[in-house]
């Protein structure tokens, strides 16, 4: 295979809005009263021969497909690059305004949505402008103390989000965690690290219930790495993290060392420190890296509304009860809305590394399955990318019930959706396999 130039460009654009907007990530409304740290769009452009792709991460809880598709079409018009070559990822912070009113309580601001779209496209354009020849590096760190499975199972067979070992009948945690910390970075011809991509499978919700703007710990990770690496741009991707979080539940740690303001700072230092260690240890660049992109769209039907005797029948109270009652009334209409069934999958090869994306809140078990299927040196899993289709739990989770399984706009796809996402990703990986 003949050698061709591999180029990368990076950019970061802030879009922190004025105070007073509704925050997304809880059942009850919250209004921002202060700014903890900036919200931003962070972009990585890659180019080799006639293929150009751009990945942009946004400090959002989620970005629905209509927003994504409209932005991609504007991108295509501006750059004459296929719309689908712009990948849009929401980091899933729970302390940023929404671009999509998922539960009927978080009213969106059209001006804010327009501002995010403008800054997203600005970041993408700047990253393309900054394209330059680079050497590419990738390796994987290890996170021993963060990103715990957040679903507890009990002796009666039920499951509960944030159940813990001090609760009666506690039988253990339902599933695994993913301790890997994939890291990719680029060095330009001067030897400077121009950009870094970091990926970890945990909810970024250290301060999820607060009333201030924040990127949560991904913002801390970006800031610390960038400051250490002389201003390198940093993208943080949330991995398959639907059922993982900073909390330590077994054995239960009531101090929640990874929660709150102190926990956010600790999380940022821990993740950034491991990423920087991984970068320092990764000395050899990839030889003749190839850039390739495979994409597909699955059509996965909505799950039926459960019977009251089913373990995954909604058990919400208060505002949640209203949400699920409204969802039940709207379910027949939602079932006839094709756009809600679309699941956009991407597999991006970056030399010895691949990035596998999906638009779900994907249970960590599926992310681990995808990694087993990959023969790449380093495999990134990026959920909440190119749309939002809600939680995708495992069959075991449905047997136990709990929030992530309850049908609503936040958990709507058929129970085998995870298997379909894994299989669809497998097909895309196999199309690239001969390149590794």
What does it look like?
- It is built from eight helices and 23 strands.
- The protein is of the alpha+beta class and 436 residues long.
- Helix 1 packs across helix 2 (110-129), helix 3 (217-228) packs across helix 4 and helix 6 runs parallel beside helix 8.
- The longest helix is centred in the middle third of the chain and has 22 residues, at 260-281.
- The protein is globular, with a radius of gyration of 21 Å.
- The protein starts with 6 loop residues before the first strand and ends with a helix.
- The relative contact order is 0.16.
Tell how many strands the DSSP assignment holds.
23
Mean pLDDT: 95
**In DSSP terms, counting alpha (H) and pi (I) runs of 4 or more, how many helices?**
8
Please give the alpha-carbon distance between the first and last residues. Answer: 12 Å
Structurally, how many domains make up the residues?
1
Sheet bearing the most strands, described?
8 strands, mixed
Radius of gyration: 21 Å
Summarize the structure.
With 436 residues, this protein is of the alpha+beta class.
Blueprint (SSEs and pairs):
Elements: E1 7-14, E2 23-24, E3 34-35, E4 40-48, E5 51-58, H1 65-79, E6 86-90, E7 96-97, H2 110-129, E8 132-142, E9 148-149, E10 151-154, E11 159-161, E12 170-173, E13 180-188, E14 193-200, E15 212-213, H3 217-228, E16 233-238, E17 244-245, H4 260-281, E18 291-299, H5 319-334, E19 342-350, E20 353-357, E21 361-362, H6 364-373, E22 378-382, E23 391-392, H7 395-400, H8 417-432
Parallel strand pairs: 3-15, 5-6, 14-16, 20-22, 21-23
Antiparallel strand pairs: 1-4, 1-8, 2-7, 4-5, 8-13, 9-17, 10-11, 10-12, 13-14, 18-19, 19-20
Helix pairs in contact: 1-2, 3-4, 6-8
């Amino acid at each position: 295979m003949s050698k061709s130039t591999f180029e990368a460009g990076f950019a970061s654009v802030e879009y922190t809005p004025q105070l007073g907007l509704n925050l997304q990530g809880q059942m009850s409304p919250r209004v921002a009263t202060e700014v903890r740290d900036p919200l931003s769009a962070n972009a990585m452009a890659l180019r080799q021969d006639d293929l150009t792709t751009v990945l942009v991460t946004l400090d959002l809880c989620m970005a629905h497909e209509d927003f994504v598709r409209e932005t991609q079409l504007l991108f295509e018009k501006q750059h004459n690059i296929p719309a689908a070559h712009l990948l849009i990822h929401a980091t899933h912070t729970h302390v940023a305004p929404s671009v999509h009113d998922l539960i009927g309580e978080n009213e969106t601001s059209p001006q804010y949505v327009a501002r995010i779209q403008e800054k997203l496209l600005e970041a993408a354009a700047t990253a393309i402008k900054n394209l330059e020849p680079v050497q590419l590096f990738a390796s994987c760190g290890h996170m021993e103390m963060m990103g715990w499975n957040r679903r507890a199972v009990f002796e009666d067979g039920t499951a509960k989000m944030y159940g813990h070992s001090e609760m009666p009948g506690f039988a253990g945690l339902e599933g695994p965690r993913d301790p890997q910390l994939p890291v990719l970075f680029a060095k330009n011809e001067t030897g400077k690290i121009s950009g870094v991509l970091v990926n970890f499978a945990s909810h970024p919700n250290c301060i999820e219930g607060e009333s201030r703007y924040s990127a949560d710990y991904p913002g801390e990770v970006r800031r610390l790495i960038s400051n250490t690496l002389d201003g390198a741009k940093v993208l943080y991707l949330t991995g398959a993290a639907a059922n993982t979080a900073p909390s330590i539940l077994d054995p239960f740690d009531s101090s929640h060392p990874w929660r709150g303001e102190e926990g956010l700072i600790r999380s940022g230092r821990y993740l950034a420190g491991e990423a920087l260690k991984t970068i320092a240890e990764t000395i050899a660049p990839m030889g003749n890296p190839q850039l390739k992109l495979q994409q597909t769209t699955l059509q996965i039907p909505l799950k039926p509304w459960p019977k009251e005797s089913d373990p995954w029948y909604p058990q919400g109270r208060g505002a949640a009860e209203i949400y699920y009652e409204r969802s039940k009334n709207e379910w027949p209409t939602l079932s006839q809305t094709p756009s809600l069934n679309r699941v956009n999958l991407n597999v991006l090869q970056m030399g010895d590394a691949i990035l596998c994306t999906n638009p779900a809140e994907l249970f960590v078990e599926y992310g681990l399955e995808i990694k087993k299927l990959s023969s790449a040196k380093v495999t990134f899993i990026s959920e909440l990318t190119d749309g939002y289709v809600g939680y995708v739990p495992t069959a075991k989770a449905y047997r136990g019930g709990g929030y992530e399984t309850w049908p609503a706009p936040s958990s709507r796809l058929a129970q085998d959706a995870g298997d379909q996402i894994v299989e669809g990703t497998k097909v895309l990986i196999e199309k690239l396999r001969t390149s590794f």
